[in-house]
Specification:
Elements: H1 2-23, E1 32-38, E2 42-43, E3 48-56, H2 59-64, E4 69-75, E5 79-81, E6 87-88, E7 96-97, E8 101-104, E9 110-116, H3 118-121, E10 132-140, E11 144-154, E12 170-176
Parallel strand pairs: 2-12
Antiparallel strand pairs: 1-3, 3-10, 4-9, 4-11, 5-10, 6-7, 6-10, 8-9, 11-12
Amino acid sequence: MRCSFFLVCMSLFVSLSGCTEDANYNGNTNTEVISISSNDDAIEDGSETVFYFDFDFDENAVFFDEGEVQLVVKLPRELSFVRDSAVINAAGSDNYEVAPYVLQCTDGSSFLAFSLDSGDLDNASSPSDAEAQLKMTLQGRRPGIYSVVQATASADYFSFGCTKQFNPDTFYSVVVY
């Protein structure tokens, strides 16, 4: 009798831990922006192009612990965000629109801060090896050589601002002419 009870408890434990591990697609517990890419390496002043931010996140923290992914993009003064253009790439369904908190700096640069929770990331996918992809349209607004778009992501809240040093996970250079 004790042996059967022990076996039932062990099989329940193994099956529950298996569900948790299977829900974490690749077992990654890091939250970070893996890469930034764009449809164009050079953008004409006034024209628009799509940028892609591939990122990983800890699914257990988001889906089981009700955590959030804080993803922050720093734009140089040569680029601006096209309002209502940010979406999370979704597998097998329509993309999910997300809106950032926008911080304009006096030097012309800006920050886009996204707080992404389980509702935002439920069907998230990426054509790369990353777990999710944020897509947005940026517009060239003044010429500049090697304008740098920077991004970082974290499972924890972190402060950022116009006068603080920004430590990106990755960056992408683009020319605005």
